[in-house]
Structures are given as structure tokens and as C-alpha cells.
Amino acid sequence: MPDEIQFQDLAALLKITPETVVERYGAQINSSFFDASNILGTLKIKGLIDFTTAFPGQSAVHVTDNGKKLITEADERATQPFDHLDYEVLTQLSGGKRSVVDIGSAVNIRPKDLAMHIYKLEAQDYLVSTFKSGNVDLALTEKGFLQVKNGMPQDAGAIQQAALGEPIPPMGSTMITQQASPQQAQAQQSAPQPAAAPQAPYTPPPMQGGGVLGSKLMIVWIAVLIVLVIVVLLYAQVI
């Protein structure tokens, strides 16, 4: 039976005060007498409320011990930090789903767990719930709308990692490994650099056979000049 608790049961239970009577409960939840009677009958079947009948007076409604335990559990879970399931509920609301039934079909979790998360989101001012004609409608507050736009908080992911026993890197560890601090950078710049080894002057390698080739060319040129001189003299004698 506890797992069959719906958010509507919790919301209706919270509307009950010491002065609540069956005949006037419909006005407290903005519903007709017929719808209010159905809701009270459901709470009675689940053991969350009981009636005290005083004929010919009105029938008083009071919360049972099981109902008080449910409210206490909801209050305790409302103090827990924002988590991924809360963000998913807000995302579904932002997408146009307003009824608890539609959101429950989208996230596919137990009705009681969903009821606790919706109660927590309302307690932390992420959404509001309103009764109308025997049903509960949900709507985002400004805080909830901005949370959907900003995305999942980073610290919420770290909290869930801690709950699962996963290691959490220290804040800023990524920046430390990727970028050195200004002091470290200055120390690296001021550190003495190792002296470069002296380089020997460059000496071009000698051309193999260069001296012999130059001597041969010189002899050829001298022979050519001698031939030219002889030809010039012979030509002069002929003339």
C-alpha cells in the first residue's frame, strides 16, 4: 500500500486541518463535493485519514498515524539536495506536461517516489501545484524555469557520485593539470638553461682530384696559346 501513494494523495492530505469536515472539504481543494468525496474515500482506503461522525452534525476528518508518517517522510526528503530526477521532472514540465500522470509515464518510476520528488520541488520553490476539479496541475516557477535553462547543477552530479562511491576530482584539478600557475611559469622562464656545446668552424671538404684537374687545364690552355701564336706568325710571313 505505501508504494501506491500518489502525489495527489499527499497534496490532499496536506490540505486537511483540524477544522476540516467532509461537507466542506471540496472548497479547500477547489473541487466539487463529489470529487472531494472520492479523494477522501481514497485516502480512507489507504489508511491515511479517518472520519468522526457526529449525527446530526458534520463528519470531521483527521489524519491517521500512517498519514502523519507520510507527511514526516515527505518533509525529510524535501531537505535533500537537487538531483537528476528532480531535473528530469522540471524538464518534463518545461516540455508541456502538467499532470502527474503524464510526468509519471515519462520518467517511469514508482508513484510514491515521484510524489516525494514533486513535493520536494514545490518545497524548494521550483514548481507549484494546484487542485482543480479533483485533479492536481503542476507548473514551473521562475526558479524552476531558470533551472531548466541553466542545466543540471555541477555540484548535484558530484553529490550523486559520492553516493555511488565514485571518486570526485578536486575542484579546479583540470585547470591545474592543463595550465601552470603564474609563479610556476615565471620560475620556468627564470631557470638557467643548459649552455650549448661549441660548434667547430665549417670547413668544406676538398674536391677529390682537384689539383690534377687544374694542372691539366693549364697545360691545355698554354698549348692553345702557342698554336695561336704560331698561326699568327705564319700568316704574317705569308702576307
Short description:
With 239 residues, the protein is mostly helical. The chain has helices at residues 7-14, 25-28, 33-45, 65-77, 84-94, 100-107, 111-123, 142-150, 154-163, 173-178, 182-190, 210-238, and strands at 49-52, 60-63, 127-132, 135-140. The chain has twelve helices and four strands; from the N terminus they run αααββααααββααααα.
What does this structure look like?
- Strands 1-2 form a two-stranded antiparallel ribbon. It has a two-stranded antiparallel sheet with strand order 3-4.
- The protein has helices at residues 7-14, 25-28, 33-45, 65-77, 84-94, 100-107, 111-123, 142-150, 154-163, 173-178, 182-190, 210-238, and strands at 49-52, 60-63, 127-132, 135-140.
- A hairpin with a 7-residue loop joins strand 1 and strand 2.
- 56% of the residues lie in helices and 8% in strands.
- It is mainly alpha-helical.
- The longest helix has 29 residues, at 210-238.
- It is rod-shaped and about 170 Å long.
- The N and C termini lie far apart (145 Å).
- It has a domain at 2-142: Arc Repressor Mutant, subunit A (Orthogonal Bundle), CATH 1.10.10.10.
- The chain contains 12 helices and 4 strands; from the N terminus they run H-H-H-E-E-H-H-H-H-E-E-H-H-H-H-H.
- Helix 4 packs across helix 7.
